[in-house]
Amino acid sequence: MSIDVVVPTLGESITEATVGEWLKQPGDTVAADEAIVSLETDKVAIEVPSPVAGVMGEQLAAEGDNVELGALLGRIEASGSAAPAAKAAAPATETASAPVSDNAQTLSPSVRRAVLEHGLDPSAIRGTGKDGRLTKDDVMNAVKMGKADATASAAAPATAPVAPVAPAANGRDQERVKMTRLRKTIARRLKSAQNDAALLTTFNDVDMSAVIEARTKYKELFEKKHGVRLGFMGFFAKAACLALKDVPSVNGQIEGEEIVYNNFVDISVAVSAPNGLVVPVIRNAEQMSFADIENTIGDFGRRAKDGSLKMEEMKGGTFTISNGGVFGSLMSTPIINPPQSAVLGLHRIEQRPVVLPDGTIAARPMMYLALSYDHRLIDGREAVTFLKRIKEAIEDPTRLLIDL
């Protein structure tokens, strides 16, 4: 009996998606709830599970096709029914998927591609993602450790030979890759923010000595008690909550001819994912402890890499923190995430000479802060005040404990 596989509900206001990659080919054995195809939406990639156990039947949508909510993607031949003829017709497809078929249910599209590319046995790699899932970093670490060499010879016969691409005679060859739906959405939203908002960026710098000292002193106790590392983002998220309380316009937004002031703080944190930057939201951050914030951010980071973030986790948000410092950025002018009105950009920490209050000069670990904001709602004085509140809280973390 054939069972239809259709495009599932994708979330509020999302009515279509793009077929990203078929994870199962006609003739492949499929377990119930095993991922068979990935879809890319405007916000995130999702995997569609098989509704029953059986054999992958015909695929009615090709990779790259745009499909609407409820559209037919393919069919599963339920257990007990005859396998589809496509099984015999496509042996190359079957053998190409063999090296990963046993663990396909745990592999995201990006991880699956990396495993096949390097000829790895995924069962031999320890996964660090949620529920032990493999991440792309796990695969790349295995490659660095030499596991690829150990398994490549065994996997090679199962992989169809690929003809090498001849380089251009003058060495100026090019590669064209179609933009993903997520990348196109990012581009559209960023350009819309530039067109619609009166963007302005204000800078300040902050001495990170006190925060670094606190982390050094308490990081082992903190990790032992809470099971998570004490990071810089926890300090900045708490500092932002205090500053947003003092300067509420930075936490507000424009809707038509009205200004909406939010009495809660939902912080969007920019996280790097295989297909681009995503911004999951820490809900009610003003009510959370350092441990709650660090656990939430850590979980977002892991699931962004393995593609398991849910769309509802990226909806909303009243303010964004983007940490370009992890990539080595010294200074930037971040772009707001509409309908939010402001974004705080963090940058790398480096030793710089600083004139101390007593007139002496000393090397201190300094970071540039950047606040980009919609000048239609936030005045320059409010932006400067907000950054000063952040600076004061980071340079004297005791303020975070006594709500100053």
CATH topology of the largest domain: Chloramphenicol Acetyltransferase
Mean pLDDT: 82
Structural class label: alpha+beta
Helix content: 25-40%
CATH architecture of the largest domain: 2-Layer Sandwich
Distance between the termini: 66 Å
Number of strands: 19
Question: What's the assembly state of these chains?
Answer: single chain
What is the assigned CATH homologous superfamily of the largest domain? Chloramphenicol acetyltransferase-like domain
What does this structure look like?
With 404 residues, the protein is an alpha+beta fold. The chain folds into 3 domains: 1-89, OB fold (Dihydrolipoamide Acetyltransferase, E2P) (Beta Barrel), CATH 2.40.50; 92-159, no CATH class; 183-402, Chloramphenicol Acetyltransferase (2-Layer Sandwich). The protein contains 11 helices and 19 strands. The protein has helices at 86-89, 91-101, 109-118, 136-144, 147-155, 181-196, 209-226, 232-246, 290-306, 380-395, 398-402, and strands at 2-6, 16-22, 29-30, 35-40, 45-49, 54-59, 66-68, 72-78, 199-207, 253-255, 258-260, 267-269, 271-273, 276-278, 281-282, 319-323, 342-346, 350-355, 361-374. Strands 9, 12, 15, 16, 17, 18 and 19 form a 7-stranded mixed sheet that branches. Helix 8 (232-246) packs across helix 9. Mean pLDDT is 82; it is low at 81-99, 101-106 and 147-163.
